[in-house]
């Protein structure tokens, strides 16, 4: 029978799945429900938790599209890592970049209570890990960094329509360019202050040249920052519009501060 899949914000049935001890018709009916629901919704797998059962049971499609029944599954070995864009029925129309093990080994029991083992890699390994997560009352949100998790939860809370969880981080590689520009301008300000106490015209000319070279360096870095920041921003699919505003604002603020320094230097040093 096709069952309704639990979706956010309805909580999953319990925190931890209960291992199956009795292999009865009730269990077989649950497995059939899982299979029917997977086929009806064209899914790669389901955990019993996702249809409201507390049993530790998952069903996952293998490489050939066959449904593999796993009762009391346990992940016993793993190797490698793989980052892919995942989706889950619990969060409809939402995706997130998640890092998981690329290769895994799993032990489980079949419907005859026979101990089995399975090695999987790639997409099948990821699907199995995702379903095993549910047996611990978890979803892919528990694999996110604290920063991305908070952003994802905020979007869920306010029912944001953005589909991806590739949200804007709060720090970027481009920030290092801004730091370098600020350091250069700090030295320029220091040079300007020193020049105020100097009467030697030759020394003042050298300081002015130093300020000119510094300004050229800052402007060049600002141009590099502007274009690199746009490139880096495109890697974050979730907030390109907010990033471009920040990029333009930062670039203009650097030019504004530089202009102030150079104007003062022109009147008091040059």
Looking at this protein, list some descriptive labels.
alpha+beta; 5 strands; 5-stranded antiparallel beta sheet; 270 residues; 6 helices
Find the CATH superfamily of the largest domain.
Answer: Peptide deformylase
Report the mean per-residue pLDDT as an integer. Answer: 87
Given the structure, what is the number of helices? Answer: 6
**CATH architecture classification name of the largest domain:** Alpha-Beta Complex
Number of strands: 5
**Kindly, what is the distance between the CA atoms of the first and last residues, rounded to a whole number of angstroms?**
85 Å
Give a description of the structure:
This protein is an alpha+beta fold and about 270 residues long. The protein folds into two domains: about 25-155, Peptide Deformylase (Alpha-Beta Complex); about 175-270. The protein contains six helices and five strands; from the N terminus they run αβββββααααα. A five-stranded antiparallel beta sheet has the order 1-2-3-4-5, sandwiched between helices. A hairpin with a 2-residue loop joins β3 and β4 (about 90-110). α4 runs antiparallel to α5, α4 (about 175-195) runs parallel beside α6 (about 240-270) and α5 (about 200-235) runs antiparallel to α6 (about 240-270). The radius of gyration is 29 Å and the shape is rod-shaped. The protein starts with about 25 loop residues before the first helix and ends with a helix.
